[in-house]
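We were asked to recover a plausible sequence for a given structure. The inputs and outputs are reproduced exactly as logged, with field labels preserved.

PROBLEM: sequence recovery
POSITIONS: 742
GIVEN STRUCTURE:
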């Protein structure tokens, strides 16, 4: 669209003011059916030359513009439009109608039927299927001579990325009608997964109906000689859009009588089932929008019919009144209600954004769920606040180079994890000041973060990757496989025990297990012990646990001791009767002769008598720490033994596939100190005033001359009160609303 600056244009429209004025609105990327760029008019009107303007706009609120006194910036209000559907739906960018063929995967064809047969009806409905077939899709049930037989069909489709869905239906070619009675067929959400398929899928579905009514009776929906259409209802369309965009939709076709546990009538035989053939490929047809209207440019025009009742068809013949962008909206096939706001950078910011595309070099293997996501912006320092807690304990590895501990993280979107020895991800669409050496994984089953084994690196601006560490039994890599020597990339979960009991010569015994990693527990008397236990450990993780587990604690050097000074024993105990099962291991007595020493215990328990005991989730793990003063008996006074950050660590097989988290620092200043005022050192931008300056210049296109000295004053104010920001923006609207908030 062109801005209207022609005086001739203004004059010509002014002279036509008495001739039926019309307000027209154009929103970028909007489509009216198959017509791109059609204007929405204030009322229906057809000119003498046949040019029609649909009656799209029900109401238009007035747009007000004011000028601040004493040379202040102008303030322009937004407007609300209510645009009605005329003959076709309103879409944005394009409407795609696709015929998705059944998706084969996880050892399963994309379509087929499951059959279960049993003399007991309840078992026929709920047990795993007797067999699976891919040659037809049969739905229903019947009573044979002795057994009840239950048929359920299944389908699975790969859904593309979509942000809305206007229509969806499945097409199946009919084959045979074996039903002695009429029944209704439900499309239901299949809940099987990549590890549960085949005959185990039989009862893996959600019984909520996803389709409009489909009946098998004469003159109803089913036909054995033609195509059958299962149209999704609103619940089904919303499920596809909200849950299965860029994912695999799994469906079960089930008789309503089966869902209601209504057994088929008696008789030899008594049938109530129908069959669809798969010789004609089943298809899923979707009509959907691919782009959201957020931030789309909107322009409001006024024009007039001339003396021959002709309205202009080109914006160069209209008078542009106002330019804005879409701020808030609701969109359905029949109504588009939209609130527009003035597109003034100083008051309403539209930031340029970039999204992840598989067409970009190196991003060809991006997971479907990450395609189309916005490349993040990382602001501030994410390297502080490290705690000792469940999920992530506080410790370093034996070389002291990798520090763990719960803290502040920002998300990295995986774009390549095809190779076993590396996972590549995008942390930001800009340079980072610093990336940490520690990665985290969000374990949704336990609702907490856990650590990931592997070495983190940053090969390019905004890119990070986890490399598989060299095979080693040292901590934490010894936790990554059964053979205690292959360093997989996998999560490791920390369990912090609770205090159980301690002798009189023990002080601050809970410090070793609190969240502050700097606190020491102290055993002051010779021979005294402290006991900790886990309770019944919850191994609620999304993978197979590796063996063995490791007990980790940090010790402080104990002056004067050259002999063993500390002993750790580990036991297991059944929770229900508090019976001590057996001593699992006695870890060697430790020399406490260096600060920061980590006492890490490893067992390869495969084949040992304790292996099954350790796998029993109903047992407590008990750690007993004892002070040994067995060195020089003449040494007096005895020095205390100090320890902290006690925890038990387990590895498990859940490789990150879509995202992981890291610590680090976000956008740095340049060497000229453009944003922070600090030359050469390029500090991370974290002062609120500096952050706004960076957004305005780096993302908003303003120049240094357009930033006044008030920013420097604000910087000093924030610095004096030690106020800093740290956040990650990974959505276009978040950037807009953040700047407006500031």
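RECOVERED SEQUENCE:
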């Amino acid at each position: 669209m062109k801005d209207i600056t022609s005086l001739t244009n203004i004059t010509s429209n002014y002279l036509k003011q008495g001739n039926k004025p019309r307000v027209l609105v154009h929103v970028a990327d909007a489509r009216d059916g198959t017509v791109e760029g059609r204007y929405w008019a204030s009322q229906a009107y057809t000119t003498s030359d046949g040019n029609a303007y649909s009656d799209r706009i029900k109401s238009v609120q007035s747009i007000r513009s004011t000028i601040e006194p004493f040379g202040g910036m102008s303030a322009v209000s937004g407007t609300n439009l209510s645009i009605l559907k005329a003959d076709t739906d309103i879409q944005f960018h394009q409407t795609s109608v696709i015929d998705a063929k059944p998706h084969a995967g996880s050892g399963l064809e994309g379509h087929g039927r499951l059959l279960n047969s049993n003399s007991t009806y309840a078992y026929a409905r709920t047990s795993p299927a007797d067999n699976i077939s891919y040659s037809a899709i049969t739905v229903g049930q019947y009573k044979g001579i002795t057994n009840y037989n239950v048929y359920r069909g299944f389908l699975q489709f790969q859904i593309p990325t979509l942000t809305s869905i206007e229509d969806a239906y499945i097409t199946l070619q009919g084959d045979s009608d074996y039903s002695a009675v009429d029944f209704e067929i439900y499309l239901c959400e299949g809940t099987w997964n990549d590890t549960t398929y085949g005959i185990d899928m039989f009862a893996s579905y959600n019984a909520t109906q996803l389709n409009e009514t489909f009946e098998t009776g004469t003159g109803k929906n089913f036909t054995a000689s033609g195509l059958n259409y299962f149209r999704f209802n609103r619940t089904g369309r919303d499920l596809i859009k909200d849950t299965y965009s860029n994912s695999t939709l799994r469906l079960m076709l089930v008789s309503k009588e089966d869902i209601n546990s209504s057994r088929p009538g008696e008789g030899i035989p008594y049938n109530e089932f129908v069959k669809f053939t798969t010789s004609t490929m089943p298809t899923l047809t979707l009509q959907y929008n691919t782009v959201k209207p957020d931030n789309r440019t909107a322009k409001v025009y006024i024009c007039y019919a001339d003396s021959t009742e002709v309205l202009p068809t080109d914006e160069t013949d209209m008078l542009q009144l106002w330019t804005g962008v879409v701020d808030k909206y609701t969109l359905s096939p029949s109504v588009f209600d939209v609130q527009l706001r003035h597109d003034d950078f100083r008051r309403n910011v539209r930031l340029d954004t970039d999204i992840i595309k598989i067409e970009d070099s190196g991003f060809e293997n991006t997971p479907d769920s990450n395609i189309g996501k916005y490349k993040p912006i990382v602001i501030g320092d994410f390297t502080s606040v490290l705690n000792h807690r469940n999920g992530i304990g506080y410790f370093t590895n034996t070389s002291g180079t990798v520090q763990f501990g719960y803290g502040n993280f920002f998300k990295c979107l995986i774009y390549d994890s095809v190779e076993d020895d590396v996972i590549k991800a995008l942390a930001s669409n800009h340079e980072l000041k610093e990336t940490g050496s520690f990665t985290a994984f969000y374990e949704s089953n336990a609702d907490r973060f856990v650590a990931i084994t592997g070495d983190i690196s940053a090969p390019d601006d905004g890119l990070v990757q986890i490399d598989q560490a060299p095979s080693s039994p040292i901590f934490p890599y010894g936790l990554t496989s059964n053979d205690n020597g292959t360093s997989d990339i996998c999560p490791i979960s920390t369990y912090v025990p609770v205090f159980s009991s301690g002798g009189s010569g023990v002080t601050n015994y809970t410090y070793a297990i609190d969240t502050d990693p700097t606190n020491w527990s102290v055993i002051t008397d010779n021979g005294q012990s402290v006991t900790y236990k886990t309770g019944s450990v919850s191994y609620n993780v999304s993978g197979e646990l590796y063996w063995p587990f490791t007990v980790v604690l940090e010790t402080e050097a104990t002056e004067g001791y050259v002999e063993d000074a500390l002993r750790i024993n580990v036991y297991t105990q059944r929770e229900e009767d508090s019976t001590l099962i057996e001593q699992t291991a006695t870890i060697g007595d430790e020399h406490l002769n260096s600060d920061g020493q980590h006492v890490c215990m490893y067992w390869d328990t495969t084949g040992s008598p304790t292996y099954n005991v350790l796998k029993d989730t109903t047992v407590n793990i008990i750690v007993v720490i004892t002070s040994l003063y067995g060195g020089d008996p003449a040494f007096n006074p005895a020095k205390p033994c100090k320890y902290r950050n006690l925890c038990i660590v387990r590895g498990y097989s859940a490789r990150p596939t879509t995202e992981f988290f890291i610590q680090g620092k976000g956008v740095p200043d340049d060497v000229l100190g453009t944003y922070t005022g600090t030359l050469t050192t390029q500090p991370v931008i974290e002062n609120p005033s500096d952050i706004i300056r960076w957004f305005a210049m780096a993302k908003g296109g303003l120049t240094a001359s357009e930033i006044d000295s008030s920013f420097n004053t604000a910087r000093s104010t924030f610095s004096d009160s030690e106020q800093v920001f740290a956040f990650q923006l990974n959505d276009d609207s978040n950037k807009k609303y953040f700047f407006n908030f500031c």
